[in-house]
């Protein structure tokens, strides 16, 4: 019995470590999302529409190529996550278009606080006081990073409201995805959610009479990149949800803001301020400590799908 328990503990620790690593990779990929949106000239609605349909085609092809099938059960489990995903993309892309990435990221940085409160009720997740301290410190690092940026362009109240809406949609999507992964594997769930999101955005466009407008030739490169880079992050994070507590993965998800700050220097030629450098240092350190302290199996482990 002791040998069996030890084997189970080692296996759980290995899965947890892989899950934490996957969450880090996913968050790093998301860090390029806002920058790609800024570089594209198309509207937020157009970017969302084409990004989702490209993702739908690609994920559906991969699903069938790997021997899986999209059943009614798949769509029944993933539809709510898909609607929330669509809401998040529309509101976040709109926020980035109307206000600065700084403001949009600053508001989104508070997602771990919401997830922490809700995950305790939904999944019974619990932490030591020291864990909570490091989680709070990680959020402080992100806030310093985005607040220390030199904002370019006029910030509009509409953009701030869209950013707040994105925060709510993103938090709900995060928790629903965590719960849905108990019944579907990562690829099936991500495919089902993306299909639902694509149809939802299409319906919104038809009902509201919005126009997608003409997409410039160069924008197709950014749209495809948007579907591949941040899109892959969603698939990877949905896999990690099975092994990592929602509140911990949400803290790691804040790594995307730190990656965005550094990527803006490399890609957009922006200069990091002293406050940003301090914030990145604090944020990376705190996130690394949180991940390291969570290598043991989750407080409420989910059984992996066979």
Task: Explain how this protein is built.
This protein is an all-alpha fold and 306 residues long. It is 77% helix and 0% strand. Helix 5 runs antiparallel to helix 7 and helix 9 packs across helix 10 (217-240). It is globular, with a radius of gyration of 19 Å.
Index terms:
306 residues, disordered C terminus, mainly alpha
Could you give a short description of this structure?
The protein has 13 helices and no strands.
Proportion of residues in β-strands: under 5%
Could you report the average pLDDT, rounded to the nearest whole number? 81
Query: How does the helix and strand content classify structurally?
Result: mainly alpha
How many E strands? 0
* Relative helix content: over 70%
> Could you list the spans in which at least 5 consecutive residues all have pLDDT below 50?
297-306
Radius of gyration: 19 Å
Number of helices: 13
Q: How far apart are the termini?
A: 23 Å
Shape: globular
Task: Set down the secondary structure blueprint.
Elements: H1 2-30, H2 33-39, H3 44-65, H4 72-98, H5 101-108, H6 111-123, H7 129-147, H8 157-180, H9 186-208, H10 217-240, H11 246-253, H12 255-267, H13 274-293
Helix pairs in contact: 1-10, 1-12, 2-10, 3-4, 3-9, 3-10, 4-8, 4-9, 5-7, 5-8, 6-8, 6-11, 7-13, 9-10
């Amino acid at each position: 019995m002791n040998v069996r328990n030890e084997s189970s503990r080692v296996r759980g620790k290995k899965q947890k470590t892989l899950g934490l690593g996957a969450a880090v990779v996913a968050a790093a990929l998301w860090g390029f999302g806002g920058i790609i949106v800024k570089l594209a000239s198309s509207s937020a609605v157009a970017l969302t529409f084409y990004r989702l349909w490209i993702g739908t085609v690609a994920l559906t092809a991969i699903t069938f190529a790997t021997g899986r099938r999209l059943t009614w059960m798949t769509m029944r489990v993933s539809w709510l996550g898909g609607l929330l995903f669509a809401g998040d993309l529309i509101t976040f892309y709109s926020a980035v278009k109307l206000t600065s990435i700084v403001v949009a990221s600053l508001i989104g940085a508070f997602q771990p606080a919401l997830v922490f409160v809700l995950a305790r009720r939904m999944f019974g997740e619990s932490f030591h006081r020291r864990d909570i301290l490091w989680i709070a410190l990680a959020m402080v690092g992100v806030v310093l990073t985005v607040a220390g940026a030199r904002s370019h362009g006029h910030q509009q109240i509409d953009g701030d409201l869209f950013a707040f809406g994105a925060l709510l949609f993103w938090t709900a999507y995060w928790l629903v995805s965590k719960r849905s992964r108990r019944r579907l594997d990562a690829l099936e769930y991500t495919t089902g959610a993306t299909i639902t999101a694509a149809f939802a955005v299409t319906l919104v466009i038809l009902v509201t009479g919005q126009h997608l407008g003409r997409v410039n030739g160069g924008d197709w490169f950014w749209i495809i990149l948007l579907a591949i880079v941040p899109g892959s992050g969603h698939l990877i994070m949905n896999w990690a949800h099975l092994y990592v507590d929602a509140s911990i993965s949400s803290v790691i998800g804040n790594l995307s803001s730190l990656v965005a700050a550094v990527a803006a220097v490399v890609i957009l030629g922006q200069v990091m301020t002293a406050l940003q450098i301090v914030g990145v240092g604090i944020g990376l350190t705190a996130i690394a400590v949180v991940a390291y302290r969570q290598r043991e199996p989750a407080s409420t482990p989910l059984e992996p799908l066979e």
